[in-house]
Amino acid sequence: xxxxxxxxxxxxxxxxxxxxxxxxxxxxxxxxxxxxxxxxxxxxxxxxxxxxxxxxxxxxxxxxxxxxxxxxxxxxxxxxxxxxxxxxxxxxxxxxxxxxxxxxxxxxxxxxxxxxxxxxxxxxxxxxxxxxxxxxxxxxxxxxxxxxxxxxxxxxxxxxxxxxxxxxxxxxxxxxxxxxxxxxxxxxxxxxxxxxxxxxxxxxxxxxxxxxxxxxxxxxxxxxxxxxxxxxxxxxxxxxxxxxxxxxxxxxxxxxxxxxxxxxxxxxxxxxxxxxxxxxxxxxxxxxxxxxxxxxxxxxxxxxxxxxxxxxxxxxxxxxxxxxxxxxxxxxxxxxxxxxxxxxxxxxxxxxxxxxxxxxxxxxxxxxxxxxxxxxxxxxxxxxxxxxxxxxxxxxxxxxxxxxxxxxxxxxxxxx
Length: 416
Ligand code: EPZ
Fold this sequence. Notes:
Blueprint: E1 3-7, E2 13-17, H1 22-30, E3 39-42, H2 48-60, E4 63-67, E5 70-74, E6 82-83, H3 85-88, H4 98-105, E7 107-111, H5 124-132, E8 136-140, E9 143-147, E10 155-157, H6 163-174, E11 179-183, H7 189-200, E12 204-206, E13 212-216, E14 225-227, H8 232-244, E15 248-252, H9 260-268, E16 272-275, E17 279-283, E18 293-294, H10 306-313, E19 319-323, H11 333-339, E20 343-347, E21 350-354, E22 363-365, H12 369-381, E23 385-389, H13 392-395, H14 401-407, E24 411-415
Parallel strand pairs: 2-15, 3-14, 6-7, 10-11, 18-19, 22-23
Antiparallel strand pairs: 1-23, 1-24, 3-5, 4-5, 7-9, 8-9, 11-13, 12-13, 15-17, 16-17, 19-21, 20-21
Helix pairs in contact: 1-2, 1-7, 4-6, 5-6, 6-7, 8-10, 8-12, 10-12
Bound molecules: ligand EPZ.
């Protein structure tokens, strides 16, 4: 079991290059199921979650080759339409094969994802949308079994904005008969990235990035090449690493406009940022003021940055109220941060963070991807050594983390 050991106190300086977005690459790879031609995907990050969806497609019969950051996916000879529990339980985003499988083959058998550390995370909205499109759905032995001769376009309204729900149904609608309208659709940039790739292959989609997406079904879509967009959450995480250490860090190969809500919060906390076309520089030389944060669907403050900003607020001047509105249990990092000396009280879905002068290094446990990131952020500034165990959580979403942080001057080592 790998762990990382961070010795806090180093100011981070320099430049870090952002990798391709995990949450964009996952639906884009799943969308290759919709074509019988090869898809050539560039800037695909080297992450555990990407290996998982690659294994899932290969066990269904797809042929995948990786050459550096390029992934060639050919789903022409796909045989099975089943996503087994063994794989889905390690990554709930495997549910993204559901829509494409039903669209192309008229059937799918996908294990229900089961619970997850940050919440129950049901897929009822994915299923309800497919039923609206004429699919027969049965839940049996922990699997969702879907059948449809040919999906029909339908008007679908999401009770809650759901990112993968929007992506699943957008992919299902691409090959459906007639027009599908997705109301209260997720506006995340990852949805837009997927839509851009589908449109390039011949899909007819309008409104991606807004809360109403209209898809006119076509009989087939081609394979094609595409470059995955940069990871806005990785970028935001490094900005917070620069800020908490009072450093001067430039995050390059990112899309600054994806980070507007994060940059606004950092500015309100007294942290200077300079934005160029594809990079953001953070200069934190006059301390950190406490600010309130409320997570919201895009373009609001991203829930995937909540744990990281909480670590920053833990050493700010003043009192910050952080409200998590997207997931019902996304405070697993709180007990671990408390063990490092943070002063955090939980009241419902509010976390009241009283800034302290110093955090102290401690052995801590990673529990989910972004909670682990917040422990790294805290460890960079804590006095002494912080030892983070179970860092496979980090490897799911952060490529070469210790290498990128070391190059910025952090004292971080991975120990097997
Ligand atoms: C995506 O998860 C991301 N994962 C998550 O990133 C991210 O935190 C989340 O969106 C919110 O931005 C991927 O894109 C692979 P949701 P997703 O469906 O789609 C409820 C990370 O760290 N809901 O937008 O699963 C759900 O319980 C991960 O990279 C239903 O009730 O999230 C949640 O409370 C963590 N029924 C809310 O909606 C449904 O059918 C938003 O979930 C679907 C969702």
